[in-house]
Design goal:
Layout: E1 12-17, H1 21-36, E2 45-47, E3 50-54, E4 59-62, E5 67-71, H2 86-92, E6 96-100, E7 106-109, E8 119-123, E9 126-130, H3 133-137, H4 147-156, E10 170-171, E11 176-180, E12 186-190, H5 206-221, E13 234-236, H6 242-254, E14 262-266, H7 274-286, E15 289-293, H8 300-310, H9 322-328, E16 334-336, H10 341-345, H11 360-371, H12 378-381, H13 384-404, H14 411-425, H15 427-432, E17 439-440, H16 446-453, H17 466-473, H18 483-486, H19 499-510, H20 520-524, H21 530-540, H22 543-562
Parallel strand pairs: 13-16, 14-15, 16-17
Antiparallel strand pairs: 1-3, 1-9, 2-3, 4-5, 5-6, 6-7, 7-11, 8-9, 8-10, 11-12
Helix pairs in contact: 4-13, 4-22, 5-6, 5-16, 5-17, 6-7, 6-17, 11-13, 11-14, 19-21
Length: 577
């Protein structure tokens, strides 16, 4: 297969506005950093008010006095969508993009789901934008740590509300945009997010909604399965759960060459040995080629550091994906990922049945606490004063989102989506898997969200909708248990809690600037001793304390990368508002 026939992962960078020579030099430097990472740009768009570089997964349309562009992690955006307002493009293709006019005015916009990753750095009369935060950070004149964002990484796993680890740089949230006006003013704002309009309706014909939901996902996947790209190959991710098996079944059903499909499984490090075995049973049932990639204990440190770099140190969740990502880089074909299934289809992010008697404030707080449950173990990992400060900061950062949707019929779902799915989970498909091959996320398309959010909560509660969806995708999946159904408890040691994992994390954190944040017990636990490594292993074998340790490790690696370039780099500042 020739290079021209293969899609490259999506990459974009540039600057829009009333540009100076310094602006252009910075845009060139960003592009050079990308090239050093192996990015191959299409011919550049260099205009008086725009410098734009894209890979061949983006679609660009140039007129006499304007440029329109759109891109997402999946590629294959219909060019005619550029003839519509950007809000329609963002919604219909779940695409980021830009629309520019004469003299450097225009808009750089995010996607409807917010799961497509785009960073912006506003400057005087211009806005720099990039799919990679590093390209912005490495070329910025000034960088300031955002300790609010780091509190949120520790508590939630990622910065909230578009914050990044730098105060100067922002990630665009659902339907957000950065605009340069005709006068040269720059502002970041948000168009109306249509998902707020999707509310539970009178009891529908659930069978019809189920069939329509499956049909919408199949339609979204089909262009990547028609054999015109990558020789018909495709790569559904297949865990031991429901969402991935649904997409694997649809990929097999819709593919022009199902023998070219490969389902990929790896351990999520959640501690269940059955995940890969259940995935293998699903693949055999669907007659799909299956590969299981497992991470080695000895390679834990490399995997963690590579993941941190891949997500620009902005999320602490999916380090265990790295071994399978390396294999996927040599396996052409779109990747299918089930992000959003649990929150939109599975009904697992809703208020409890006894929610009605609670006060409005109590409900808001419970929605925040559900996504920051790791903080219940904070004093085992952090100094008491640090633990208190992180919790206060994290809750204050989440409160505006909880307040915005306090009275919404889908309050808990939307709050959870914006506190977890968008900031913390989406970098895994968009940037980690998306660094290997074009990555498709069918469950966060606008049409699927609309169908799911309009269903009454009782139709989805505790996964009640899944049996219908799975049967509609392929009747062979009817009644097949998941790994969670079969285990309920862990059956093997987490790789992160191995001696190798514990020693890597302990040495990394204790020898770095974040050591001053550690609890007395962890600060004294020397991993070179048998007792010390066991102390770390015990905490790493618990999901909540493990989460906090991962956040400290991420902070340490970030400071290794940027500590000499940022002002006020002392992590103890996290204690001060």
């Amino acid at each position: 297969m020739t290079g021209e026939q293969m899609l490259q992962p999506t990459a974009v960078c540039g600057v829009l506005g009333r540009m100076t020579e310094a602006h252009r030099r910075r845009a060139d430097s960003m592009a050079e950093l990308a090239e050093e990472e192996g990015i191959t740009w299409q011919p550049s768009y260099l205009l008086p008010g725009l410098t734009l570089r894209v890979t061949n997964t983006a679609v660009v349309q140039r007129a006499e006095r304007s440029v329109s562009a759109a891109w997402n992690a999946a590629g294959q955006i219909a060019p005619q969508l550029l003839d519509q307002p950007w809000t329609s493009t963002a919604r219909e293709a779940d695409a980021c993009g830009l629309r520019t006019n004469a003299r450097g005015s225009g808009t750089v916009h995010g996607s409807v789901s917010g799961c497509q990753v785009l960073y912006v750095h506003t400057a005087e009369s211009a806005v720099f934008f990039s799919t990679r935060l590093r390209w912005l950070a490495e070329t910025a004149e000034e960088l300031t740590p955002d300790w609010q964002a780091w509190s949120e990484i520790l508590a939630f796993g990622a910065p909230l509300a578009g914050r990044t680890t730098f105060t100067e740089i922002r990630r665009l949230m659902p339907m957000e945009y950065a605009e340069v006006t005709d006068s040269g003013a720059v502002r970041v704002s948000q168009q109306h997010w249509p998902w707020e309009d999707y509310t539970p309706q009178a009891p529908p014909n659930l069978a019809e909604v189920t069939q329509e939901t499956i049909a919408v996902m199949a339609d979204h996947m089909r262009p990547h399965l028609d054999g015109t790209r990558a020789g018909g190959a495709a790569n559904p991710m297949l865990s031991g759960g429901r969402d991935s098996r649904m997409l694997t079944a649809l990929a097999a059903r819709e593919s022009a060459h199902p023998q070219q499909l490969t389902a990929w499984s790896t351990s999520s490090d959640a501690g269940s040995a059955l995940e890969e075995l259940v995935a293998a049973e699903v693949a055999e049932t669907l007659s799909v080629e299956h590969r299981i990639i497992t991470g080695r204990y000895s390679a834990f440190g490399e995997d963690f550091a590579d993941y941190a770099e891949a997500v620009d140190f902005q999320a602490s969740f999916h380090f265990w994906l790295m071994p399978v990502v390396r294999a996927l880089r040599t396996s052409p074909g779109a990747i299918f990922d089930g992000i959003g299934g649990g929150v939109l289809l599975g009904g697992g992010f809703a208020d409890p049945a006894d929610a009605r008697p609670r006060t409005r404030r109590d409900l808001q707080l419970s929605r925040i606490q559900a996504r920051s449950r790791y903080l219940t173990e904070a004093r085992k990992v952090l100094q008491d004063s640090v633990s208190v400060a992180v919790e206060e900061r994290a809750y204050s950062g989440a409160w505006p989102t909880a307040e915005r949707y306090a009275d919404h019929p889908n309050a808990h779902t939307l709050t959870s989506y914006l506190l977890r799915t968008v900031p913390g989970i989406s970098p895994a498909p968009a940037k980690v898997l998306g660094s290997a091959q074009p990555t498709v996320m069918p469950m966060v398309t606008d049409q699927v969200a609309q169908l799911a959010l309009k269903l009454p909560h009782q139709a989805k509660a505790d996964g009640a909708w899944y049996p219908r969806l799975l049967t509609a995708a392929d009747p062979a999946l009817r009644g097949m248990p998941t790994a969670d159904d079969l285990t309920g408890t862990r059956h093997h040691k987490r790789r992160i809690a191995s001696r190798e994992g514990a020693r890597y994390l302990a040495n990394l954190i204790r020898s770095g600037p974040a050591a001053g944040l550690l609890s007395a017990e962890l600060a004294a636990a020397d991993p070179a001793t048998a007792h010390g490594v066991v102390v770390w292993q015990k905490l790493l074998n618990s999901q909540r304390s493990q989460h906090l340790i991962r956040g400290l490790a991420l902070l340490t690696l970030w400071l290794e990368q940027y500590g000499t370039r940022v002002t006020a780099a002392d992590p103890l500042r996290i204690q001060h508002a």
